[in-house]
Design brief:
Helix content: 10-25%
Number of helices: 6
Radius of gyration: 22 Å
Strand content: 25-35%
Number of strands: 26
Structural class: alpha+beta
CATH superfamily of the largest domain: Trypsin-like serine proteases
Length: 440
């Protein structure tokens, strides 16, 4: 490993900086709030911070080492490895923080794990707050595997940490009725039933609410939103986001919820035809896309804020898709646990669910979820952010949950979401951030 400065963990703050260097000037002023000075860290919304962080990282490449949103101070914090980059970052409106470990060094640690040093039941990601690769080991990791992970960490010059997480990493799909296939705790909602816990995990049976086609045929389902239950045989997942594909209505959900050709209904009895998967990607990534069986069906770009039918009502309109950012406050809607909230804790995470099911490039959060919530919508205000994949724990004990980035799914499928597709929402946002209170 290369030699690093002993004082490099201190924060770097520049007062009275001049004109921004390189291309960074182009991303400075659109993020400032009215009346603020044009130098030093600026308050901004999470969407603006995410856009700025991405651009600063691209402009400075190897001289940055990750970034995060300080939600309390409402500012972007960018890790840098030299003072020249720190000055450019400060001049652009973010806070620069000099760190020990470079992006390249941290990538070597992640590559070591990916190339055989990891174990099933573990997850890892670069934590920009600690400037280390953070490894989580679930309850299935035995003492020998735990010792192996710690031995690897010991050889990484302080760039890798290992800790336990409660529960077992699992994909969060469930069966259509009263239980999930995995062992764990669950909510057990179904057709208006209350929450409960059991050895078979979570289950949400939407039941046959009388809206089916009657004997001998299927009716086309309409108005199914993000977070609502979707069924394929005995399996239940949650719809992610309604989209359009070549002008036709469709939706995104998790890849592990079915293979290409899988037909979904909106009811457990299978009477209300919804859509058929045209593409499904799992493992490595975890998303799938379906086209609606009725090309004229309504498919509002919105998330259901009451997917359990508890009478709370309300929807959240989705106008576009946004990149996630560490520190971003998000919500998740799913058919087992309804709407929960929390914070993005890491990006580009890898999780090994076991049996060869390894997914990469995930968004890691502390938002709880349970079996049956797979595919459900994670969003920040009116922006789609992620599709629920899996995690550990439950909504009683808490835990980690991993999400497929929506922007990557949109790019791969060519689908569009909301008013302007995946990137349009970000482009339209520039220059329109006025409220500190909108920082999510």
């Amino acid at each position: 490993m290369s030699h690093r400065r002993k004082d490099s963990k201190r924060a770097y703050v520049i007062a009275g900086a001049g004109t921004a260097a390189l291309a960074l000037a182009a991303v400075t002023l659109p993020y400032a709030n009215a009346g603020q000075d044009e130098t030093g860290p600026r308050t901004m919304s999470a969407k603006a911070a995410a856009a700025m962080g991405t651009k600063l990282a691209d402009a400075n490449e190897s001289s940055t080492a990750g970034w995060f949103i300080d939600s309390k101070a409402k500012k972007l914090v960018m890790n840098v490895t030299d003072e020249e980059t720190a000055q450019r970052v400060e001049e652009s409106g973010a806070e620069a923080r000099l760190v020990q470990n470079s992006k390249a060094e941290l990538k070597k640690v992640s590559d070591t794990l990916a190339n055989g040093a990891s174990v099933a039941g573990s997850a890892w990601s670069v934590d920009p707050r600690t400037n280390k690769v953070s490894v989580l080991a679930d309850s299935t990791v035995d003492s020998a595997e735990w010792a192996s992970l710690n031995k690897t960490a010991a050889g990484m010059d302080g760039m890798m940490s290992v800790k336990r997480t409660a529960g077992k990493f699992q994909k969060f799909h469930g069966n259509g009725g009263a239980g999930a296939e995995e062992e764990g705790n669950g909510a057990g909602n179904g057709a208006g039933q209350g929450a409960g816990q059991g050895d078979e995990g979570a289950g949400n049976g939407a039941g046959d609410d009388g809206a089916g086609a009657g004997e001998g045929g299927q009716a086309a389902a309409e108005g199914v939103l993000g977070g609502d239950a979707i069924f394929a045989g005995d399996s239940r997942c949650s719809l992610g986001f309604n989209v359009t594909v070549d002008g036709a209505p469709g939706f995104l959900t998790a890849g592990h919820c079915g293979e290409a050709g899988t037909a979904f209904t909106s009811d457990q009895a299978g009477a209300e035809a919804l859509g058929t998967l045209t593409d499904s990607q799992f493992p490595e990534t975890d998303f799938s896309i379906a086209t609606l069986d009725d090309a004229q069906a309504e498919a509002p770009s919105a998330v259901n804020l009451d997917p359990l039918g508890e009478g709370q009502g309300g929807t959240q309109e989705i106008t576009g898709a946004a990149e996630a950012a560490v520190g971003m406050q998000v919500q998740r809607s799913g058919s087992t646990t309804g709407v929960t909230d929390g914070e993005v804790t890491a990006l580009d995470a890898t999780v090994d669910y076991g049996n060869g099911d390894v997914v990469n490039g995930m968004i890691q959060t502390n938002v709880c979820a349970e079996p049956g919530d797979s595919g459900g919508a994670m969003f920040s205000e009116d922006q789609a952010v992620g599709l629920t994949s899996g995690g550990s724990g439950d909504c009683t004990q808490g835990g980690e949950t991993f999400f497929q980035p929506v922007t990557a799914a949109l790019e791969a499928t060519g689908a569009e979401i909301g008013a302007g597709g995946g990137e349009a929402g970000q482009e339209q946002e520039q220059g329109q951030e006025q409220e500190v209170g909108s920082f999510q």
